[in-house]
Amino acid sequence: MKTRLLPALLALLGSPVFAAPAAPAAAAPAPVLKPAPKGDYIESFDTLYNNLTIQREGTRVELRARSRRGEFYESIVDVADPLDLILEYSRTVYAAAFFQPEPKRALIIGLGGAGVHRLFAKAYPDAVLQTVELDQKIYELCQTHLEFHPTDKTPVAIADGRAYVKRDTAKYDWLLLDAFRGGYVPAHLKTEEFLRECAARLTDQGVFINNLHEGTELFYADIKTMQKVFAQVVLLNPANSGNVMAFGVNYKTPVITDPSKWPDAAVVGKRFEGRVNLAAIKGELMPIPREVAAAKVITDDFNPAELLNVIKTNNESKGR
Amino acid sequence: MVLIFFYLLVIVLGMLSMGFQMLASRLLSPHYGSTIVEWVWLISTFLAAFSAGSVIGGWISNLTATPRARWQLAIAVIGVASLALTAFKQKAMLDAIELHFIPDVRDMNDQGGAAMNTAVFLSCMALFFVPVTALSSFGPQCVGWLAARGTAPGKASGVVYGVSTVGNIAGVMLTVFKLIPNFRVSHLMYGWLGVAAISLTALILLLRMPSPRPPSP
């Protein structure tokens, strides 16, 4: 028995599961994708990371993820008009154009239903929009049910967002953190150390965009943590969404906290062909809440993120 | 009174073991994310350590008094030393393993891939396997001690593992709901180290107490 144990262990360590790093592995063959049913449908999928429901009524397709307080929208797409941004927060993302109007390279952590992607690809046809998504099934559903067809300009990597950013060497003009599991963002994507890794990936004029939920203690801690990392932070609160989009930049000048000094919305928004009303989005400016002063910075060492009430009641099934 | 102190120590050791698993997930996630791959290796490492600890502890409990006392001390020293290594050097060790096995962004395209599995496995083994094995090895010795004081072996085993499991549950609950929300993980690791050193010292002294009567045949 003793003589067999050691060779068995060595064989296990030599197996493909425990390989030392060499050249990056060749890309795995693309899985065969099962097309969406014809007509209206409702389907559910339990994946390694999510409990997903995808439902089509007419031309509207909703991708929802179940969480402890119900279902949360990952995305809503009108397949007859995929450029239409139905969820309010996805329009406010484009306020990033005020701070960096000509993005050449962008990174989105969290694919969702690729709601932001279609308009970005249309508005900035020469730009590269890299996406990192943890859940392979979400990527499949985007392709089969949600009319997202990735190209060499919109590549998708299946990986943990933090692990990806840490190893990435590219610089980005826009970096959007939109990685939700149901109604919450994984705790390791909330910390000062992670935000610093994101800040290091921004170009000089690059902007970091963080999709937050308001009305919880975590919200204040999120803002406080962003303030610790970024030289300037601006909050925009899209109406009827429960979301607050937080924008952070690494520079102190020019000042971005005064919307009257932002570029002309009509000029910046020309690329969006009327899909995004940037002038109205200027009016979504939200002052930094007073409670932020007393909030604690979330770090890798001190991270109670899951324990705080991150799910806002009036956000349920109203989009995020 | 001695028995109450004994069960208290069993509970504390149970708390240290499973509470440590919650802290371990916090130590790993900045390096490997919060994926199911991380949890697979983390849970497997702890279960393997429980298994190894039980075997080692069973062997030690059957030794005669003098070598048994030596091994108890040796295992306790190894447990505390390895826990100190985890408490003081975890970040440096995790950085080294992570960057050696997953140096490139292209390796991130497959969460279940070889590089990720290897890195998480080795990290778990380096940081958690030895201290948890050492803590677990005292379970069978506690059973032996209780049996030597007249409790039937089957009953002694059931009671010790039942009480220890209560400690496991308390450790998980306390760590997640009270400790992590209020303290830094690094400070909690120092706390784990201190409590482990004190409780293992107390347990070794207790296990060396002479039995009031010879063990049942």
Spell out the key features of this protein:
heterodimer; A: 320 residues; Rossmann fold; eight-stranded mixed β-sheet; 12 strands; B: 217 residues; mainly alpha; Growth Hormone, Chain: A; 7 helices
How many structural domains in the coordinates of chain A?
Answer: 1
Q: Oligomeric state of the chains?
A: heterodimer
Q: Helix fraction of chain A? A: 10-25%
CATH topology assignment of chain A: Rossmann fold
What would you report as the Rg of chain B, rounded to the nearest angstrom? Answer: 19 Å
Rounded mean pLDDT of chain A is 85
Beta strand count of chain B:
0
Give the largest interface. A-B, 38 and 36 residues
**Describe the biggest sheet of chain A?**
8 strands, mixed
Which sequence of SSEs, written as H and E, runs from N to C of chain A? HEEEEHHEHEHEHEHEHEEHHE
Residue fraction in strands of chain A: 15-25%
- What is the topology, as strand order, of the major beta sheet of chain A? 7-6-5-8-9-11-10-12
pLDDT < 50 stretches of chain B: none
Overall form of chain A: globular
* DSSP summary, beta strand count of chain A: 12
Strand content of chain B: under 5%
Q: Which structural class should the secondary elements of chain A be placed in?
A: alpha/beta
SSE string of chain B: HHHHHHH
